[in-house]
UniProtKB/TrEMBL annotation:
Lineage of the species this protein comes from: Eukaryota, Viridiplantae, Streptophyta, Embryophyta, Tracheophyta
CDD domains (alphabetical): SET_LSMT (cd10527)
Record-level Gene Ontology MF annotations: protein-lysine N-methyltransferase activity
Alphabetized InterPro entries for the sequence: Rubisco_LSMT_subst-bd (IPR015353), Rubisco_LSMT_subst-bd_sf (IPR036464), SET_dom (IPR001214), SET_dom_sf (IPR046341), SETD3_SETD6_MTase (IPR050600)
PROSITE patterns listed in its UniProt record: SET
Pfam families in the cross-refs: Rubis-subs-bind, SET
UniProt keyword Methyltransferase, yes or no: yes
Limits of the SET domain: 36-292
Organism: Morella rubra
Record's protein name: Protein SET DOMAIN GROUP 40
Keywords: Methyltransferase, S-adenosyl-L-methionine, Transferase
Any single biological process term in GO: methylation
Length: 493
């Protein structure tokens, strides 16, 4: 269906890619870029369109090469004189803003763009948090997450305003000057660029950007060690995309120097982006790429999806300032793991904080090494964490059970086609569903008019569902933390 809509078939896109030298075969010169190691497929439960193994693949083998000349970078895009002259007049714009504007400019070129076959197969819409409307943002419920969404939305707006002059000078079509067009391009860049060493905006990599994501898993225990090295220093987001790879060195240090968080990187000696199998795959399995280490909120922010089981998810709970000041850990190291276990730093700091001030100095070394200070101290700490978690859950507007029910209702609604059908599945108690309808001016459902659920409504519903899924995962971690603390208290009492 997509193929017809786009006018350029996937087959032609892959032919175009092969002509640019993109290949999943180290030796063969074939008219298609895929088929030797990888094949394009649809994986409904793990990212939709993605790349599968076309044969059994061995861990570590090269599975795709994309030559530098096929990468869409600021450098390659600025070969267009008109664009280059205009961009040079705006030196205050960031690399990411420039790449975003360049992408919109290529769209504006239409058939005359050399990237047309690639552009035609980009997603039409995205669910990154900057695209959330007020209703979807509030559906996150948790203040930190709402704040992150507000920040992302206002950042996108500010960047668009700053780049507007450049886009006007490029004489773009009016619909490409809008915030909506900017958000589309910014989301394309946020969710699809790969890190390159010479430009922090990264590059768009045809075919290479079809790999879906798998979280780095086994490194989790190692991150507890990273916590200790980042103590008292500012924590930085781990991302191997968009050039934001500040935590990578820590990870490499802690795992014996040769373990890679990334399974794709630009290789200067062959002037190509090279992708490697991060594990062995059997034919037909989806081949996944690790974009970096992200919490679910970060995945939502940068990629517009989240994982039900994310080994790198974290929950931050409100802490009194005295807890920070009584230890030298960085604030960002105080969190609850997705398993419900408090982080090493959080436990150490709380053990110290629960110690009488005159004993803190002598017990500090024990606390920092992760030791239990005394049974009484441990029970007090666990009780304190469990109480905080309980308060958090009680203060949120809906319970875990209600969120589960709501998600099944959303699933049901998503299968419907018209408002009339929707009326039939609505229960009078579905407050949030009614609020969604109102927020989308769909009150007509009460009168039973048989309007079709528009594409726009379906998109809002996708984002609302993501917000509910996110808050449910958050609550589940808090609940697991209460169980963890209760278990420790019971075992010590
Ligand atoms: C680099 S693209 C991967 C290819 C993409 N599926 C496509 O059709 O073009 C990244 C996007 O794929 C989706 N994605 C990747 N991994 C995913 C996963 N494990 N679960 C759900 N969505 C995923 C998200 O929409 C993300 O923004």
């Amino acid at each position: 269906m997509e193929e017809q809509e786009h006018g350029i078939s996937l087959e032609n896109f892959l032919k175009w890619a092969a002509e640019l030298g993109i290949s999943d075969s180290p030796t063969r010169s074939v008219p298609f870029c895929l088929g030797h190691s990888l094949s394009l497929a649809y994986f409904p439960h793990a990212g939709g369109r993605g790349l599968g193994a076309a044969r059994d693949l061995r861990k570590g083998e090269v599975i795709l090469r994309v030559p530098k000349s096929a990468l869409m970078t600021i450098e390659s895009l600025l070969k267009d004189d008109k664009l280059s002259v205009a961009v040079n007049r705006h030196p205050y714009l960031s690399s990411v803003q420039i790449l975003t504007a360049c992408l919109i400019y290529e769209i504006d070129k239409g058939k005359s763009s050399r990237w047309l076959p690639y552009l035609m197969h980009l997603p039409r819409n995205y669910d990154i948090i900057a695209t959330f409307g007020e209703f979807e943002k509030q559906a996150l419920q948790v203040a930190d997450a709402i704040w992150a969404a507000e920040k992302a939305i206002s950042k996108a707006k500010a960047e668009w305003k700053e780049a507007h002059q450049l886009m006007e000078e490029l004489n773009l079509k009016p619909q490409l000057l809008t915030l909506r067009a900017w958000l589309w391009a910014a989301a394309t860049i946020s969710s699809r660029t790969l890190h390159i060493p010479w430009d922090e905006a990264g590059c768009l990599c045809p075919v290479g950007d079809l790999f879906n994501y798998a979280a780095p898993g086994e490194e989790t225990s190692c991150f507890e060690d990273v916590d200790s090295w980042t103590r008292a220093s500012s924590f930085q987001r781990t991302s191997l995309l968009n050039g934001d790879c500040t935590c990578k060195s820590n990870v490499q240090e802690c795992d014996g120097h040769d373990q890679r968080l990334t399974d794709g990187e630009y290789e200067k000696d062959v002037a190509a982006y090279c992708f490697y199998a991060r594990q062995s795959y059997i034919k037909g399995e989806q081949v996944l790429l690790c974009y970096g280490t992200y919490t679910n909120l970060e995945l939502l922010e940068h990629y517009g999806f989240l994982l039900n089981e994310n080994p790198n998810d974290k929950v931050f709970i409100p802490l009194e300032p005295e807890i920070f000041s009584s230890s030298s850990w960085a604030m960002e190291s105080f969190y609850i793991h997705q398993s419900g276990k408090p982080s090493f730093a959080l436990l150490s700091a709380l053990r110290l904080w629960a110690t009488p001030p005159n004993k803190r100095r002598s017990l500090g070394h024990l606390a920092y090494s992760g030791s239990v200070l005394s049974t009484e101290n441990e029970i007090n700490v666990m009780k304190w964490i469990a109480k905080q978690c309980d308060v958090i859950l009680k203060n949120l507007p809906t319970s875990i059970e209600e969120d589960r029910l709501l998600l099944s209702s959303i699933d049901e609604i998503q299968d419907l086609h018209s408002l009339l059908e929707l009326r039939k599945v609505l229960s009078p108690s579905g407050d949030e569903i009614w609020a969604f309808l109102e927020a989308n001016n769909l009150q007509d459902v009460k009168s039973g008019s048989n309007l079709l659920l528009s594409r726009k409504i379906k998109m809002s519903m996708d984002r609302w569902k993501l917000a509910v899924q996110w808050r449910l995962r958050y609550k589940k971690i808090i609940l697991d933390c209460i169980s963890y603390c209760t278990q420790i208290i019971n075992s010590l009492s």
